[in-house]
Each structure stands twice: as C-alpha cells, then as structure tokens.
Design a protein that fits this description.
The complex is a heterotetramer of chains A (about 100), B (about 625), C (about 500) and D (about 170). Helices cover about 75% and strands about 0% of the residues of chain A. Chain A has helices at about 5-25, 30-55, 60-90. Chain B has about 625 residues and is mostly helical. Classes of the chains: A mainly alpha (about 100), B mainly alpha (about 625), C mainly alpha (about 500), D mainly alpha (about 170).
C-alpha cells in the first residue's frame, strides 16, 4: 500500500471530468451514456478508496459501490431501451433532434 | 267610480289577448274583438264623463277632482313613490272622451282600411296597447305615472309607425320618431328628477295645490342664470315639446306618416301628439309661478305654428300637409297655454281655449286623416299630383272632408271656429304682436287646407282610364260621418263651463272684433286657394317658380332634417361613436394586449435559457456548482 | 345541515348525474331535472326568507350556519342570506334553467360542457350564499376557471384569444381581491382580538383603520369592478362574450358579471364604509364614463354580441354607479338593475345564439328582415330590446328609474350632475337598440338563403319565454322585489351614515 | 493481494495510464464503437484498481456487471443504431471549448480542494480481504451498518427496470 490515497482520487477526478467533457460535447445519446458511465465509475472508485483508506474496518463504501453498480446497470438498461425506442421513431439518436415535445 | 279602472284594463286585456294569440285568431275575429273592447271602453268613458260633470260643484263652484283608484306601485323613498292610479278632473275626463271616441272611430275605420293586410291582428293589438297607454297617461295621478305611460305611448307609436316593417322608409321613420321623442323624454326625466328633488313629491295634486313650493324650495339655486325651478319646468316642457312635435323637435312627425293612415289619425293627429299640451295643462299652476318658462312656451309655440304653416303650404304629399297642419294646430294650443295665467278666469282664458281647441282639433283632424285615408285607399297614392276631381267619386268623403276643412279654417259654425277664436282672443289679450302673428298663421291654415281640398276634390276632371276611384266601404264612411257630425256641433258645447283654469265655470262669449278679423282672413285665404286651385291651371307652378328659393326651402322643410342628419350621422356617429369605438379597441384594449405582449416578449427572450438541451443544463449546473464551490473555498481560506 | 348548502350540493349531485349519463337524452334529463330542482329551491328560499322576515326575524343575514374549515386562519364555511343574495340566487337559478334549454343541442362533448357549466354555477351559488370572505373568494375562483374551458373549447371566432384574455383579466382582478381580503383579515379585529374572515363579524368589529381603508377599498372595488366591467377594465367583455357559446354568454353576462356588483356591495362598501364615502367620487367618474362610453361604443358595432357586450358595459356600469351613490334607493336600484340586466342580457344572448345557430353570422350587415323568417325569435328580440332601452312594464325601466331617482337624491351637487350624465345613456341605448332592430329584424331579407331558415324550436321557445316572463313580471310588479332588497339594504346604509 | 511495493506502483501507474488515456479517448473519438471499446478498458482497469485495494468481490462485480453486462448492451445498441464505420459528426468548436472549460475548471477546483484539504493521518491497516460472508450479512441484515432496506430497494428498482425496459423497447 505504497500508493497514497490522493493518487487514486486524482485518477478518479480525471476520469470524472473526462466524463463531464464527453457529456457536454457529444450529441449522440449513446456517447452521452458512455460519458455518464465514466462518471459513475469514477464515483465508485472514490467510494472504494475512501472506504479502504479512511475506514478500513467497515464496508459502507464497498456496499454502496455495489449498489451504485446495480443502479447504473438498471439505468443503462432503461436508457438504452428508451434510446432504441426513440431511434425507431425518428431514426436518429442525436439529442438536439429531440424537440417534438418541447414548448 | 272604481269602474274607471276598467277603461285601462280592458284595452290592456285586448292587447294581451290579441298579441299573444296573434295569428291563431282569424283577422276578422281579432278586429271585431278589438273594436268591441274599445266600444265598451268608450261607453265607460262617456259614463264617467257624465257622472263626473254632473257631480255637485263645491263651494267655489269647482267640480271636485276624484281619485277613484290609487295603487302604490314602486316606492323609492319616504316621500317619493310611483303610484298607478286614476285621477279624474275636468281635463282628464275630457281627454278620456276624446281618446276613446277617436280610438273607437279608428278601430271601426281600420276594419275596412286595413282589410286584408298582413298582420291585421298585430295591428289591433298595437292599437289596444296604444289606447291603454294613452288613457293611462291622461288619468295619471302623478308625474312619474305619466312618464311611464308617456314612454309606453312612445313605444306604441314606434310599433305602429313601423307597422309595415319591410318598408325602409317606415323603419327609418319609426326609429326617428322614437329617438327624437326619447331625446325629449330625457329632458322630461331630468325635469322630473329636479322637480321631485326639491318638492319631494311626484303627486300632481300636491304639486298643483302648492305650486309655489318649488320656488321656496329652490330659492337661491340657480344654474346658468336661471333659477333651478325654471330649468326643471323648461326641461319638462322639452319632453312635452318632443311628443307634441314643437320646433325644433318636430322632425319626427311628418315622417311618422309612413304608418298606416288610421294610426296617423289616432296617434299623430288626435291623441298622442297633444300629450305635450296636456302635460303643460296638467302642471299649469306650477308653470304659472315661473312666467319666464311660459314666455318660452309661447315663443316656441308661435315659431312652430308659423313654421309648420308655411311648410304645409308647399307640401305635395297629402299626409305631410296634414302632419304639418297638426304641428301648427298643436302650436296654437301651446301658445294659448303660454299666454294664460291662473290668477283669474279672464287671464286664464288661454288655458280653457287650449283645451277646447285640443278637443275640437282632435275630432276634425281625425276626420281629416280618416278622410285622407279613404282617398289614399281609393287612389293608392299619397301624392296630390295623382288626385283631382274626386268629389264625384267619393261624395261622402268629400262632404266630410269639406266640413273638417271649414272647421280647421275657422269658419262658423263649425267647431274649429269657436276654439280658435278663443285662442286668438287670449293671445290678443296678452300681446298684440303675438295676436297678429297667430292671426296670420290662422290665415295660412285656411289657405293650405283649402289648397289641399281643392287640389284633391276639384282641380281637374280625372279621366281615371285605368282605375276608377270609388267610395270607401261603410266601415270607413261611418266614422267619417260621425266625426263630421261631432265637428258640426262640438262648437256649441259649453266647454268653458266644464273646463277652465281654476275649475270655476266660465261662460264663453265671442270677442266679435277678433272673430270678425279671423273670419275675414280665413275667407280671403280660402278665396286665394280657390283662385289658385279650383281649376287646373299654371298659376301655382308660376308662383312656385317666382319664389323658387323660398319654395324649395319650404318644401325641404327649411333643411331642419338635413341639420339633424348632419348632427346625428356626422357628429354623433362619425364624430363620437366611431372614435370611441376605435379608442376602445385600440387604446384601452391595446393597453391590455400590450401587457400580454410585453409578457410574451419577455418570456420569448428568456425562453432560451430553457432550451431543452440537457447538455446546456448540465453545463450551467456544473458551472453554478463550481462557482458556489469556488466561493465557499475562497471564503474558507 | 343548513338548507342553503343545497345550493352547492344540488349542482354537485348534478355533476355526478351527468358523469354517469350515457347519451344526449340522459344528459338533458339530468340537466333539466336538477336545474328545475334548483329553481324550485331558489323560489322556496325566497318564500322562506319572506316568511322569516314577516315573522320578525331582524338579523342581518338569515339561515346562518358556520363550520370551521381551516383553524389557523379562522376560515369558516359560513353561509347566510339577505334580500340581496336571495334575489341573486333566484336570478342565477332562472338563468341556469334557461341556459340548459338554450344549449339543448350543444356539440361536441355535450357531457363535458354541462359538467363545466354546472361547476361554474356551483361557484356562483356558493359565492352568493357565503358570508365568509375566504369561502366567497374560493367560490369566486371556482366560477372563473370553467369559463376558460367553456370559451376555449365550445366557443367560436377568436376563442383562444378571448378565453385567455378573459381569464387573465379576471384573474388579475382576483389577485387584487386576494390582497384586499388578506388586508381586511389582518385588520378584522381590534388589537389583540380574534381575527376573522366572517363578513358580519368584521362589520361588527368595524376595526379596519381609516388609512388601511384608503388602501383596501380601491383594491377590492377594482378587483370586483373588473368582473363588473368597469371602465377601463372592461375589454375582456366584448371579446369574451363574442366568443363564448350561448349558455356561457348567458350565464356570464347574466350572473357572473353580477358577482362584481354584489362583491362591491358586500365587501368593498359594507366593510369599508369610511373609504367608500371618501373615495366614491373617483369610481363614480369611472363608472359614469362606463355608462355613457359603453353606450356610445355599442352604437357603431356590427357584431350582435359586441353590441350586447358594450351594452352590458353600459348597464353594469350603472350598477356600480348606483352602488357608489351610497343611499338606499340608489342601491336598491343597483340590485334591481343587476337582476334586470341579468335577465334581459341572458335573453339577448340566448336569442343571438339561436339566430347565430341558424344564419351562421352575427354581422348585422349580412342579415335583415328576420321578422319575416323567424317571427318568434324576432318578437322576443324586440321585447329584449325594449326591455334594454327601458320600456315601462319591463324590468329595465324599473331598475333604471330607481337608480336615477335614488342617485338624484344625493345631497352633493357633483353626484347629481353625474346622475344627469348617466341619464343620457337612455337616449343612446335607444339609438343602438333600434339600429339593430331596424337592420336585423325589419326591412327586406338580405340573404336569400335565410329564407329557408326555421323559427324557434320548443326548447328555444321555453328558454326565451321563461326569461321574458321574468322580465315582464319584475317590470309590472316591482314593488315586492324592491321592498325585499331595500329592507336588506338598511343595514348597509346605516353603516354608511 | 500481497505485492511488492514496486510491483504495486508499476501496476498502479499502468492502470492509471490506461484509465486516463482511455477515458479521454472514449469521450473524444468520433467512432462510437471505439468509444465503447475504450470504455471497456477503463472499466477493466477500474476493476484492477479494486483488486489492488483488496476488494476482489467488488472488482469481480465490476467485471461481471459492467464489463460483461452493460458494455454488451452498449455494443448491441450501437450496432443497432448506427452503421459500421460511421463517424459522428464533429462537435462544434464552441461546444468543445465549453466542455473543456467546464472539465478543466471543474477539475481545477476539485484538485485545489483536494490538495488544500488536510487529510486525516491515514493509518493504513492491512485488513486483507473482507469476508464475503460478512458482506452477505451486511446486505441482508437489519442492524446498524446493515443494508436490507437499500438492498430491497435496489432489487425492486431492478425489477421495475426489467419491466420498464421491456415495455419501452417492445414493438407495438
């Protein structure tokens, strides 16, 4: 355990903001979803790292990371279902084309 | 005398019956029902008159007035309440007789005249409505009841003028009649409001019993230099002037001739148009406390009399001639009231004369109109140019028409002579200037009436190749004969015994100087008319050409109608209503819309923030969070 | 339970009945049954009220009942009636009854139409029976909201615009009102006392400070005045009425606009007598303008409903005008004018709706000679017109004369001069009424297609005749209703002196 | 996992480089299938991190669920919705700049916070791996530090998701 905690956190930080960048710039909904996964993943790492380094005797972080993974899985499944459904309707999955229900 | 209430209720019942059943009744049945109702009504009125005038006189020699029926209809305040009731005094009883008689004659006459018209039942319903309203008007116990029935006669008149509702001229005329009189009624209403505000009563009996009350109550209150009392009474007179077609509110009456002729006879000659006269007579003691208003009344009457007489001389439509003659004759009555005073019987001669003339005029003017109706019925035209030489074809009409013309021209022994003579005497007593003025008008009257008479019955020998005029049926001639008889004898009724300014009997004696003058003037005028119109010739046309400007002006009624048209269309409609409507739609509504538009504009501007693009949201969210985080960090440092 | 609550309960049952009705026939049956029931209840209330008064019950409001509703703000469901509310209830019941027949053939979504209409009537009935400011306000809102849908869905012409405008303007009014009501509430009791929303208690406490009255009186008066079409807040009325379907126009012009006048009485004047006296001149000018201005505007309109809407502005202006005169006679006149205007304007709108339903135009330039084609409707129209221009024997005359005479009794010269200005409206009214009658009913038939049109059906006749009978009854026998109102006004007038 | 410190460091740096590079590539590449592949590397490396931290269970879940399950879903849907070799259109410059600004400032602020924060002295105790049994108890226990409620919530959520996904995606 020679690696200081801060290293892990910086790693997740980079991962998270890569996700942010992707989420903001990409128009393809699947790409946005991928970015989202990156962010979630970064958060999971943080859970695990904080648990490991700060509260080594307990397992809250881990448990919540597991929950987060489960929820991410669920969310992805739904999101992809929706995306595919949208794709069926408008043959496209770019977010800026989705303005039928706007205004 | 409680039965008098049926004089009102009977025509009302007839109106409801005929009006509601309308076409479910056979025309004939409706006509007969209406006529029967009116007959009973007339009988009741005669009986009332008999009972009333045979009452014992009281100590001052006055026939006591009776209020057989009074019902509080609507209470406003402690003192002010509208009652519906019946107030019998000499003039109201006299009016009852006049109205029921003429109305009955018109009912009978219409059976023939209106025969086969579409809406016959409706016509009789309206006639009943009118009779009811007019009777209610004259027996009013208080000024507000009078106003109520005043409005009702206005409406009946409107409905009857517009009886031929598919004819544009009739529609326009009915509208005009209603609106002009309504305008006058506004004055009446305001007058009532002012009067009642100060005297705290609507009741005629109270008002006339203490006529000076209004002066004491309004002491010091002035408006534009005149006392409020004068204003109130002048405004009330304005109402009367509107109904009685006084200059300059007379414009509706000639047009009202668009209605069926019997209606003209009933409403626009005999009864409704004298309502104004009756109103002034009713409030006469009150008017006497404001002499300036009486002077106003005299002036208005005199101007109207002359104006109408001049215009009547050049009209070519026989009903128009009669209409202007009506205006002129009513103006006589108005002038007579204006020159009277209630101090004693002699000073108050004008009052009696006015009522007397009202009575006689109602009979012979109704006769003239009904006669004109018979002629129109025969010739199918109102224009004099279509007529001439009718004396051979319509003997009864001819004779009765002649009697009426003689009466209106003031030739003894016909009724008009007596009443007109009293008026001239009264005016002469008051002021020589107006006396001469009115004598001239009387001369003009004789001229235009005989112009009419000769033009219709003499003038040329009609060839009548395509259509032979024929005498009217019995239902139409009978009323003519009856009215002609009345015209012949009415002058000998001791009218002054029954009606006078303070109720005491007044013995009529002719002032022979005035009488002779007027007879001479009348005979001259008749001769002039005979010279011009007895045989077909070119003299009238030549005369008209010689005085082209005057003639045209008179023919166009001195452009009063045009002035009114200008005021209503150009000023009121184009100048007030249209701008107001525009203002409403564009300024007021525009302001409201502006609020909406500004709101919408602002939302459209800030709508960009709610683009719906999740990426912008995230960006903004993130930057916001970061900002807050940065601030927190800086603060913590 | 207090029987006044039936006024709210019966429409609720009616809504339930409508909800389960399956076809047009059942809908009609339900609507007719319940509106007749309601009319019966209104008549019963009048007689019961009169009997109670005759028995010597001298309370300001009869048949009171109160149930706590929301403790923290001391809001009650409190009901009670006096002569004015009884009159208004009767008016509402009559118009709803006639309105049901006028919308006999409403299409499409007839069930929904009647449901909303009933909801609207719940609001109106509730408003008139409430004596708690908050309950009153709530019912007021209940009456407003359905308007939006009724006009927006079943209307004609620029219906979306009109519905929006009407609702927004009236909502603006109720915002002012809410403010006013809260202001009144927080000053409803003397320092330290129990604050209350009950009108009678507020009046009894008489604790609203004078400077607050100066602020609250205009708020409430304008708030209600907007609904009463007070100049310059009347512009919702022409558009709103023009677009609304027949029954809605009837109910709206006939009853809903009366909520404004009634509210001015009950809240603005009754609770803040001091400010009412001090500030009446401002509103007198505004309402005086309404009266003449509305009449002049009506003279040049060409759409029948616009003419009528402006005429309503003029007539309702007269209501507020008379209220501000603050004396018994004028205020009696105001209530009678509400009643009379409600009936005749409902009649007008019903007839216009029937004519429009046949000719499909409301432009008077495109019609003419209808008297020959549909005599019954035309005669009714003439009667309505005559009532509107104040023919004696019909209700308009009685109301207007009471107002004029009453207003003219005011001791202040300014008020009397304004009365004369208002009087002028009778002439202008005659002008525009006769103009319409002349163009629309008389004359030659303008459009040959109109010759094939039919006259009124039985339900239309029933609707019109009901209203005409009421108009004539009030016009011929005004005494009892005038007494009924004027006795109830004594309480209000006493507070003013 | 007992590793030499050096080996640990080497592995960490290796994983870190893979994660950083692949994350950035994943969000910048214009080919969507490649993005998914990069994501796979990131996920696997993350699993590696978990293993390094002695969370083997978590790591295996990560591999099973994320890399195994979700990514397959991604690949499927990508293949369903786009043609092979298709490139996404280029993101506009403004958007890129905005994205970079957001990412960089965000990272900067967080990094600043991280580096200025005085962490508690990390007392690294070698606990070894948590027993799976304890984890199992924690997940379905009702005591303090036990998570039956969230566990059930997640299970219901998953159920709802299954139904929802079917409902949404099925053909009508």
């Amino acid at each position: 355990m020679e690696i200081p905690m801060i290293y892990y956190i910086v790693l997740s930080l980079v991962m998270f903001f890569a996700g942010v960048y992707g989420f903001i710039t990409r128009k393809n909904m699947l790409m946005m979803l991928i970015s989202l996964e990156l962010m979630l993943n970064a958060v999971d790492i943080n859970f695990a790292v904080f648990n490991r380094f700060l509260f080594p005797g307990q397992m809250e972080g881990m448990v919540f990371a597991i929950f987060a993974i489960a929820i991410a899985a669920a969310e992805t499944a739904i999101a992809i279902a929706i995306i595919i459904n949208i794709f069926r309707h408008i043959r496209d999955i770019e977010v800026d084309k989705l303005d039928d229900m706007k205004y | 005398m409680e039965y008098t209430v049926f004089i009102l209720l009977l025509p009302l019942a007839m109106f409801l019956l005929l009006g509601l059943l309308d076409s479910k009744l056979k025309p004939r049945v409706a006509g007969i029902l209406g006529t029967l109702g009116m007959t009973v009504c007339a009988a009741l009125a005669y009986f009332t008159a008999y009972q009333f005038f045979t009452q014992p006189r009281n100590a001052e020699g006055v026939i006591p007035s009776v209020t057989p029926y009074n019902y509080e209809w609507l209470r406003f305040t402690e003192n002010l309440h509208i009652d519906l009731g019946i107030y019998l005094d000499p003039i109201s009883v006299m009016m009852l007789v006049v109205i029921t008689t003429v109305s009955l004659m018109v009912h009978i006459y219409s059976l023939g005249y209106m025969h086969g018209e579409k809406g016959f039942q409706r016509y009789y319903a309206f006639l009943s409505l009118f009779s009811m309203s007019m009777l209610g008007l004259v027996v009013a116990t208080n000024i507000f009841q009078m106003y109520i029935f005043w409005e009702l006669v206005g409406v009946s008149s409107y409905l009857l003028i517009g009886f031929y509702y598919t004819k544009p001229a009739a529609i326009a005329a009915s509208k005009k009649a209603f609106i002009v009189t309504r305008f006058a009624d506004l004055g009446f209403l305001i007058g009532i409001l002012i009067l009642s505000f100060f005297t705290k009563t609507f009741d005629f009996a109270t008002l006339t019993a203490t006529p000076t009350a209004i002066i004491t109550e309004t002491a010091g209150a002035t408006f534009l230099g005149c006392s409020v009392a004068s204003w109130a009474l002048a405004l009330i007179f304005m109402g009367g002037a509107g109904k009685s077609a006084m200059f300059p509110l007379h414009i509706w009456l000639p047009d009202a001739m668009e209605g069926p002729t019997p209606v003209s006879a009933l409403i626009h000659a005999a009864t409704m148009v004298v309502a104004g006269v009756y109103l002034v007579a009713r409030l006469f003691p009150v008017y006497c406390v404001t002499p300036e208003v009486l002077e106003l009344i005299t002036t208005v009457g005199a101007i109207t009399a002359l104006y109408a007489a001049i215009v009547a001389c050049v009209q070519t439509d026989i009903k128009r001639v009669l209409a202007f003659s009506t205006i002129s004759q009513i103006a006589f009555m108005i002038v007579a009231l204006g020159v009277a005073n209630d101090t004693d019987l002699h000073e108050g001669l004008g009052y009696m004369a006015s009522m007397f003339h009202l009575f006689t005029h109602a009979m012979f003017k109704a006769l003239l109109f009904l006669g004109a109706g018979a002629i129109i019925h025969a010739v199918h035209s109102n224009e004099m140019s279509e007529m001439g030489g009718l004396r051979k074809y319509m003997p009864i009409t001819h004779i009765t028409f002649l009697i009426a013309c003689l009466a209106i021209a003031g030739i003894p022994p016909f009724s008009g002579f007596f009443s007109k003579d009293e008026i001239l005497t009264a005016v002469m007593n008051k002021s020589t200037f107006w006396g001469i003025w009115m004598t001239v008008v009387a001369g003009l009257t004789a001229f235009y009436m005989f112009r009419l008479y000769f033009r219709i019955f003499w003038w040329k020998n009609t060839d009548c190749s395509h259509h032979t005029p024929h005498e009217a049926p019995l239902t139409m001639t009978l009323p003519l004969i009856f009215l002609a008889l009345v015209t012949c004898v009415a002058g000998f009724i001791p009218f002054g015994e029954l009606v006078s300014v303070n109720g005491q009997p007044y013995h009529i004696h002719l002032d022979w100087s005035v009488a002779t003058t007027s007879i001479i003037v009348a005979v001259c005028a008749i001769s002039l008319a005979a010279w011009l119109y007895l045989k077909e010739n070119k003299k009238p046309t030549a005369m008209a050409d010689a005085t082209r400007t005057l003639h045209t002006a008179a023919y166009r009624r001195f452009y009063i109608d045009e002035i009114y048209l200008f005021i209503t269309h150009k000023i009121i409609f184009k100048g007030i209503c249209a701008p107001i409507a525009w203002f409403d739609r564009h300024i007021i509504d525009g302001t409201m819309d502006m609020f909406a538009n500004v709101t919408q504009w602002v939302s459209a501007r800030i709508k960009g923030l709610q683009s719906g693009y999740i990426q912008s949201y995230v960006w903004i969210l993130l930057m916001g969070t970061l900002l807050i985080a940065a601030i927190t960090i800086i603060c913590l440092l | 339970m207090n029987f006044l609550s039936f006024f709210v309960l019966i429409p609720i049952l009616m809504m339930a009945g409508l909800a389960i009705a399956r076809d047009m026939k059942q809908i009609r049956t339900v609507a007719v049954t319940f509106s007749t029931l309601q009319l019966g209840l209104a008549i019963y209330t009048v007689f019961k009220y009169l009997a109670e008064r005759a028995a010597g019950n001298a309370q300001d409001m009869l048949f009171q009942a109160s149930t706590m509703w929301y403790e923290p703000l001391n809001i009650h469901y409190a009901v009670g009636v006096d002569g004015i509310s009884v009159t208004m209830l009767l008016l509402t019941a009559i118009i709803v009854f006639a309105g049901v027949f006028a919308s006999w053939k409403i299409e499409p979504l007839s069930k929904e139409f009647f449901l909303w209409l009933t909801l609207l009537s719940i609001g109106v009935y509730g408003f008139f029976i409430s004596i708690d400011l908050f309950t009153m306000f709530m019912f007021y809102e209940v009456a407003l909201i359905p308007m939006y849908l009724l006009i927006g869905v079943w209307g004609s012409g620029k219906k979306n615009y009109s519905a929006m405008k009407l609702t927004l303007m009236l909502m603006g009014g109720s915002a002012l009102l809410m403010l006013g009501i809260l202001g009144i509430y927080y000053h409803s009791a003397p320092e330290g006392g129990q604050l209350t929303m009950n009108i009678l208690e507020i009046a009894q406490n008489n604790a609203i400070p004078h400077d607050w009255q100066y602020f609250l009186f205009p708020l409430t008066f304008v708030g209600f005045g907007i609904l009463g079409a007070m100049f310059p807040f009347h512009t919702w009325s022409p558009d709103g009425h023009a677009s609304a379907p027949t029954a809605v126009s009837m109910l709206h012009a006939g009853v809903l606009m009366k909520l404004g006048g009634y509210g001015c009485f009950r809240v603005a004047i009754y609770l803040m007598p001091f400010a009412a006296q001090e500030l009446s001149w401002i509103f007198l000018i505004l309402t005086g303008i309404s009266v003449v201005y509305g009449a002049f505007s009506a003279c040049v309109q060409t759409d029948l409903k616009y003419i009528n809407a402006y005429s309503s502005v003029s007539h309702c202006g007269l209501v507020l005008f008379a209220i501000l005169m603050l004396n018994n006679t004028a205020m009696t006149g105001a209530v009678m004018q509400m009643l009379s205007h409600g009936l005749m304007t409902a009649l007008f709108f019903a007839l216009i709706g029937m004519i429009y339903g046949r000719t499909h135009t409301r432009d008077i330039r495109e019609m003419g000679g209808l008297m020959q084609i549909m005599p019954f409707l035309s005669v009714c129209y003439v009667i309505a017109g005559l009532a509107s221009l104040g023919l004696p024997g019909l209700s308009g005359f009685v109301a207007e004369m009471t107002i004029f005479v009453g207003s003219f009794q005011h001791t202040d010269m300014f008020h009397r001069v304004f009365t004369i200005v208002a009087c002028c409206s009778i002439v202008i009214t005659a002008v525009y009424i006769l103009r319409v009658v002349g163009k629309l009913l008389y004359g030659a038939v303008q459009n040959e297609h109109h010759r094939e049109l039919t006259d009124a059906t039985w339900w239309e006749r029933l609707s019109a005749v009901t209203l005409i009978i009421c108009v004539a009854a009030i016009g011929c026998f005004p005494g009892w209703i005038s007494n009924l109102i004027s006795n109830s006004l004594n309480a209000i007038v006493e507070r003013l002196s | 996992m007992e590793l030499l410190p050096l080996a640990q460091q080497v592995i960490f740096y290796l994983l870190a480089i893979v994660i950083v590079v692949c994350s950035i590539l994943a969000v910048t590449t214009r080919r969507i299938l490649r993005a998914a592949t990069y994501l796979l590397f990131v996920l696997l490396s993350t699993a590696g991190i978990y293993f390094m931290l002695d969370y083997t269970f978590l790591g295996s879940v990560q591999i099973a669920v994320y890399a195994g399950g979700i990514l397959v879903l991604f690949v499927f849907s990508i293949l369903l919705t786009s043609h092979p070799g298709e490139r996404c259109e280029k993101t506009s410059l403004t958007k890129q700049i905005l994205g970079i600004v957001a990412a960089v400032t965000g990272a900067a602020v967080c990094a600043f916070a991280l580096f200025t924060y005085s962490w508690p002295a990390v007392n690294l105790v070698e606990t070894g791996e948590h027993p799976i049994k304890a984890l199992g108890h924690a997940l379905i226990g009702m005591e303090k530090f036990q998570y039956l409620l969230p566990f059930e919530a997640v299970s219901v959520l998953l159920l709802a998701c299954i139904i929802g996904a079917i409902m949404i995606a099925r053909k009508r």
